[in-house]
TrEMBL record:
InterPro entries: Glyc_kinase_flavodox-like_fold, Glycerate_kinase, Glycerate_kinase_RE-like, Glycerate_kinase_sf. Its EC number is 2.7.1.165. The lineage of its organism: Bacteria, Bacillati, Actinomycetota, Actinomycetes, Mycobacteriales. GO terms for molecular function: glycerate 2-kinase activity; glycerate kinase activity. GO terms for biological process: organic acid phosphorylation. NCBIfam families: glycerate kinase (TIGR00045). This is Glycerate 2-kinase. It is an enzyme of class 2 (transferase). Belongs to the glycerate kinase type-1 family. Keywords: Kinase, Transferase.
Amino acid sequence: MAPRIILAPDKFKGSLTARQVADAVGEGIRRVRPDASITWVPVADGGEGTVDAAVAAGFEPCEVEVTGPTGEEVRTSFAHNGSVAVVEAAAACGLYQLPGGVLAPLTATSRGVGELILAALDTGCRTVVLGVGGSACTDGGAGLVAALGASLLDADGREVGPGGGSLIDIAHLDLHRIDPRIRDADLVLASDVDNPLLGIHGAATIFGPQKGASAGEVAALEAGLTHWARLVAQHTGLDVADRPGAGAAGGIGFAALAVLGARRSGGIDVLLDLVGFDHVVRDADLVVTGEGSLDTQTLHGKAPVGVADRAARAGVRTIAVAGRQLLDADQLRTAGFAAAYPLTDLEPDLRRCQSEAAALLRQQGERIAREQLAATP
């Protein structure tokens, strides 16, 4: 009987999309086992690539123009299937959307994320999955809330400027004009980030420097976020700044939880449910997952571990492909991987691993077929 393989990798960041990873591994497997039955299920953990993964699973892409992280219009998309939409925060305010790649830690806004949500509601969607990760902003989701109709004014009654650097200027907050469809929608915050909004593990301190913030700017962002959280708590009666996930995507998680009434779920679990992974994996002989780097971050709820966990529940072995592999044997086992196939086994030069990833993955696909499928009749 032909072996049945499920290919469910995440992207190799900066190199290949999840689908391209799956295609390359699949080509390699078929070179050795042309009889193999292969199902592609590209995945993501809520960050960049989440919409692509949903589209690969059969969701329909919908292109829209929204406000980018520094105010310019960007053309991007969300995915929808019936009444369910998948929205990716990075698609509107991601680091890759910054013009010229110039960082803007104090002024980058999440406004476009709110516009994406509105666009999803306009199509008739009533469940909105909001994947967060890779944002360029640290505005606590204030831009998102403003796009949905909230009023954020300074002491002179003027609308405050964009970005986390202006949060400290908010004197008047009015949430009553938020689009009423939000109240009737089921908003799911898809995030594996468990950071709170404030403090030493918060959005400004942990992620601000990655977005270009100096030590002084981190302090300014922290002060602004603290002020913003206090205002929101006063108006909603909800103090969620310390809740896990509130610090996701520069505080977009906070706004989603406190203002929009979102419920948080692990990003990979949400996506696997959307694509019907539990049904697909039944009776499979092997699952192949992976990401660019298998390291200690992988162990904290990243996509490959989520895939391995779901496969294990179905009694199916999981192996991983990666650009590089930094986990020891015990960590690999704990993560649920029966084996790992890093590209560095074939090419020690990391730059060549990145530039020649597809060819190397095809070779690893051949190895996987020889070593993992040899016993399959």
